[in-house]
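[agent] plan:
  1. take the single chain provided in the ticket
  2. run structure prediction with default settings
  3. attach structure tokens to the ticket
  4. add a short note for the reviewer (M.T.)
[agent] executing step 1
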Amino acid sequence: MVTSAPYGLSRPDLDDARAAVLRVHAGDGPRVWNDLLHTAGLTGKEPGGLDRMLVVMHGADPSTRLCALALKIRITAHTELTATHSIL
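[agent] step 2 finished; step 3 output follows
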């Protein structure tokens, strides 16, 4: 198992989801984020909470759905790059 981030990329986490939501929702971001946390049953501190959050984000407004899609793309890219890096 590779312990360092392949090619300098780390796997997205709940903090990345929060940053994306705050960025796209601007002034309304904190409220949207808190609503998402509540719906997901998360506090925002869970290390493995991203998967639950992505499900909730996917069912939210169009901007939040796009954030979820972007995070899923980053997760897939990270997974594939990690696998490639481990065989090189």
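[agent] step 4 note for reviewer: Helices lie at 14-25, 29-40, 50-58, 62-87.
[agent] ticket updated
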